[in-house]
Amino acid sequence: MRYAVLHRGDELSASLTNRFHELAAAHGLTRDESHPEIVISIGGDGTMLQAFHQYFPILDSTSFVGIHTGHLGFFADWKADELELLVQYMADNMQQERVAPRTAKYPLIELEIDGDDDIPKTFIALNEFTLKGLDGTLVAQIDINDQLFEMFRGDGICVSTPSGSTAYNKSLGGAMVHPSIESIQIAEIASINNRVYRTLGSPLILPKHHSCNIFSRKKQRLLLTVDHLTFPVENLRSIRCRVASQKVTFVRYRPFPFWNRVREAFLGYDENGCQIT
Ligand code: NAP
To answer: Domain 108-246: which topology?
Structure first.
């Protein structure tokens, strides 16, 4: 089995990476940074975002596993002291196929950019993308399924995936969405409401095959963020987004249901009501 490791860069994550390579070599796993079957992210959810974007070109042939070296994450659900167990699962799976890994496939967002800025014309996001005004408010027209929906004026718009619904979207009052629901969620960032600019004021969840267009409605300097990446844009005409046709695959050597993660990460206790340290 070919694997690659990407770590956060801190001392603990770097030393765990070295330990991982030692254990992997002892179990006959092959280190392959360019075409891994499994990518191990060591750090936090932010590290997984980096791993996702780095290995996006081979998304269809690779899966991801996250080890956290800080607090429990949504993507990083293995603990630092479980390194040996994880390598054992990987080796068992490779050698005897005794432990067929379960996988969880999560929806992504695809964006098409129409504009004259020197940035990629398409993106795929694991968490979300946001569009914000750089000098003041964002002025935008929002269409859903090619029909006018609302005129937006405010700090910005956040469009998230179900797995990103626990990230920025949550801070904006968006709903947490189970990743089995193929959808995108549009959440407002501090909208202004008056006669001209009137927005719904509630987050919206669009199903697969629906689309949303955000049209820039004046000459404005904007900031586009795609997960951890940021792009200043000055000549944007529109962004079209929808649920992507591709999905990201996470390996689940053991079950860890999404709602358990939510409870443990945000409420801080396990299924027995015990506080998690
Ligand atoms: P960062 O500002 O260093 O960290 C943002 C925080 O978001 C970290 O604590 C990270 O967890 C956590 N996070 C990332 N993905 C998550 C997910 N799917 N569910 C729950 N928490 C998640 O930036 P970063 O590490 O490069 O991450 C970029 C992300 O930051 C963006 O995708 C956006 O979602 C988030 N963000 C949030 C806000 C906000 O809530 N107001 C504002 C801007 C950006 P770890 O500590 O485990 O890495």
So the answer is: Tumour Suppressor Smad4 (2.60.200)
